[in-house]
Amino acid sequence: MARGRLRIYLGAAPGVGKTYAMLAEAHRRTERGTDCVVAFVEHHGRPRTEVMLHGLEQIPRRELDHRGAVFTEMDVDAVLARRPRVALVDELAHTNVPGSRNAKRWQDVEELLAAGIDVVSTVNIQHLESLGDVVESITGVRQRETVPDEVVRRADQIELVDMSPEALRRRMAHGNVYRSDKVDAALSNYFRPGNLTALRELALLWVADRVDAYLKQYRSEHRVSAIWGSRERIVVGLTGGPEGRTLIRRAARLAEKGAGGEVLAVYVSRSDGLTSASPKELAVQRTLVEDLGGTFHQVVGEDVPAALLDFARGVNATQIVLGVSRRKAWQYVLGPGVGATVARESGPDLDVHLITHAEAGKGRLPLGRPARLGRSRIIWGWVAGVLGPALLTWLLTGLAPEVGLANDMLLYLTLTVAAALLGGLLPALTSALVGSLLLNWYFTPPVHTLTIADPKNIVAMAIFFGVAVSVASVVDLAARRTQQAARLRAESEILSFLAGSVLRGETSLEALLERVRETFGMESVALLERADDVTPWTCAGSVGPQPCGRPENADVDMPVGDRMTLALSGRVLPASDRRVLAAFAAQAVVVLDRQRLQHEADRAKELAEGNRIRTALLAAVSHDLRTPLAGIKAAVSSLRSDDVEWSEEDRAELLEAIEAGADRLDNLVGNLLDITRLQTGTVTPIVRETDLDEVVPMALGGVPEDGVELDIPETLPMVHVDRGLLERVVANVVENAVKYSPPDTPVLVKASSLADRVEVRVVDRGSGVPDGAKQRIFEPFQRYGDSPRGAGVGLGLAVARGFTEAMGGTLTAEDTPGGGLTMVLSLPSAPGREPDRPALPTALTS
What we know:
Number of strands: 24
Strand content: 15-25%
Number of helices: 23
Oligomer: single chain
Largest sheet: 6 strands, parallel
Radius of gyration: 40 Å
């Protein structure tokens, strides 16, 4: 069955019109004959949105009872049974009521998509998981309901529903978003112009990045090599010298001038292993470009200008920033330089900026020889070895015939050395042989014959040939040793990087594969594995477009053992590069094994924690739950006995014992259920503005009236909490304090306001708790000191802290001056609100 397609309407804030746009799309599809139903859409009392629901088929919702209230959620089974072509599901980041099929609505949507049903949904930018901290820093509100970014990124279509902050605020003022009693609070808090502008920018940038990813995919699939200047993308060419910092900062300023500008710093390492680069300076420049919001890349290329241009075109860059050459004036006779070559070959689509800097014109150290002699160098070596002696002979015979045989030999020896430097040993040997013959024919008496009359000249010619061959051999050997040393240096730097990644504990397989792709200039890299020789290959990790699914399809494959291989596509590597590739492959397997071991360790930790809780739970059931059951059983049996005539006082005492045992059982079971909810992450606070005067007295219903003293001022600001959870927290903390307080000393419950928080202090005068045990008392199944088994299973404070943190508060323990323990409950307050005014919910939805 084909997977359904997901379309998402993304907005910057509630009220921009996402749900309205989704319903309008549903009407258009229905008019075209598409089977479209409303699986779940919430109009939030907005008349225009409610009108748009008319004429659309709506799937009945499922009703769920939670804490005495009835809630409605999407009925996934009913939608699957109906099997429409398109289903509308509002609020993708919504958290379902406990007891639902899935914890999150986006998980419900995944089921519909897997069943082949197309889904149209909505989400606000503040609900993306990766932006939670950013949104909180902007608005001051932490979004409890989030959706993983990958879920939204996988959508087939993402449409931005945009509205200016001024227009949205006008909509609110007209009552089109919230009821009139909530408009003033919303406009002065969450919907301030600055907040809306920042959220709008987040939404626009996120969608722009998504569009850029689509563009890259399209260019890769259609092999588009021309540059499309859809956004300013600036490539900075680095040499490893100190001028790189100037270039990076200049490129960052250029990027700031264009909307959505991006900086990519790239270092092209020659195949000789970066002989002139400082690893320390490169590390500093990598840190600098990342601090400025850019990315650092390293590629390998024998021709630096060509490699730089290939990289720029590959990332669809629009500008290249290079530094003015550090070479002196006379060094330009060796070639035009990287900057001039890049500018000449960049074409009309790439702008090249040459930036002056303090190192310009000061010269630079000579670069090492390439590891492999290029074709052009070999050709020039043969030219110097064959045509050079002929040209020299013509010059000497025509222009300087009386130079002398000794000087003639030195000049021919110079050509032999030049041929060795350019083309290696064979052109040098050819030059020595041709030069000897020409010397004998034209300059050794008798001339124009191969006969040598003077024996001294025979010795001189022999010495000349021997010296020429020896010099050529030594020069060629030195060049090859230089090549080997340079390659070994390059390999040592790569191996050093791999060793450093092991020591740093880096566990990102994708980052390592990306390094392989950049180092060897490949299009894609994949790590393949299989269980045995007959099972098909599976991809454990890959980077780049269209990675290979089998080793047979790869341009280069590097086996690691019998069951894994590293497959690269893009070009064929020389045999000399396979040793480094083998090190990368081995490291990739190590990283993969480390990821899996970490995953197994996390699972083992979860299982160990679960076993510990189950063991403690069995201990609690075996004693703490059996004790009240035994008391209830004994009291009931006594009342039912016909052998004893009970007085009214005795019957009342037995009934009181039954009631006390039942209350104790109810408390224990409630704590067990609550700790289970906390362990499984199913606690979903319904946060609203609450007055402490309404909650704290209700939480003390099970505590003797003379056991607690209240001090809660009426002028306290309201707090953002879940009333039910707060009541349970206060009840557990006060009950614990009363349990450990002296009989005649009441527990003090005092509240005060501090900055943007409200603190509730529960003060007892008991024996106190040492500093080393103040954190342990909040762990499940922990009881301090010699507390008897009948005092409970040790869950009250653990449940209290869990509920408090779920509401965005904190619960800590500190010493009471004069002896005892003080529990400090810190809760977020509602700034600028009076206790008796209506409240605006923190969780805003569209």
